[in-house]
Structure formats: C-alpha cells, structure tokens
Write a structure and sequence with these properties.
Layout: H1 3-40, E1 43-45, E2 58-60, H2 81-84, H3 87-137
Antiparallel strand pairs: 1-2
C-alpha cells in the first residue's frame, strides 16, 4: 500500500470516527430535549375513577415550574400528578445522556484531530518536497528550520 492510499484510508477512518461522535452528540442532545419536555411541559394525569368515564383527567403543571405542591407532595393529598411523571425518570434520562455525551465528545474530538494531523503531515511532506527541489537548484539559500 502506498503512503497516499494509507493516508486516504486514515482520513476516511478519522471522518467515520468524527461522524460517530457527532451522532452520539445528537443522541445526547435528544436525551436533553426529552428531559426538558418531562420537566418543563404541563401534562394530564388520569384519576383512578376516570376509567369509568365519570371524570376528566387532572391537569398538572410542569414539574419544574409549578407554584403548587403538585410536583412534590403526591397522592397522599389526593394529587395524581405525582404518580404520573416521576423525578427518577427525568433524572435517569439526564444520567443516561452523560456517558453518551462523553463518548460522543471523545470520538468527535479524536476524529477531528486525527484528520487535522493527517492534513498537517501531508502539508509538511509537500513543503519538504518543495524545499528539496529548491535546494537542488539554489545552493546559496539558508537551510530550513525543523
């Protein structure tokens, strides 16, 4: 395999790694959005006797922005909102996004830096080739600093 082919394969692998990292970062962003929906949007909770068509669902305020105690006191005060949307679900979604975002950041950064280093290496090889050609025609020029 020639060095040009090897470099092309290396850049393709680096680009795939960068795209995998970008995909994981998008997934982490979707998990953050889901957590925001769980915490910031109002919702409805079905009461136990609503199954028989006697009552309408209870309106519940957003878990994070409620003025009432619906988000924290629970069913012992006759509030069905507590059981409908629990804090552990939102925290689990947020916790799941952490390793996904870390892995995405590592893969994206690795792919990006690998591609940049490959481009830098190629530029250095081209500069060396230009310097060698110039050195063979012009013996009086100062040497390149390496």
């Amino acid at each position: 395999m020639q060095s040009r082919e090897f470099d092309r394969d290396f850049r393709d692998t680096a680009e795939r790694t960068r795209l995998r990292g970008l995909g994981l970062l998008v997934l982490a962003g979707l998990l953050w959005a889901w957590c925001a929906v769980l915490l910031l949007t109002p919702y409805e909770a079905e009461r136990e006797f609503a199954r028989f068509g006697r009552d309408t669902p209870e309106e519940c305020g957003a878990r994070l922005l409620t003025d009432q105690s619906t988000a924290n006191d629970g069913i012992r005060k006759g509030d069905y909102c507590q059981a409908e949307r629990d804090w552990p679900e939102a925290v689990a979604v947020l916790g799941l996004s952490l390793p996904v975002s870390i892995a995405g950041t590592v893969l994206f950064t690795t792919g990006f830096v690998s591609r940049r280093m490959s481009a830098h290496s190629q530029a250095m090889r081209e500069l060396d080739a230009i310097a060698e050609r110039a050195g063979s025609t012009d013996k009086g020029s100062p040497p390149l600093i390496r």
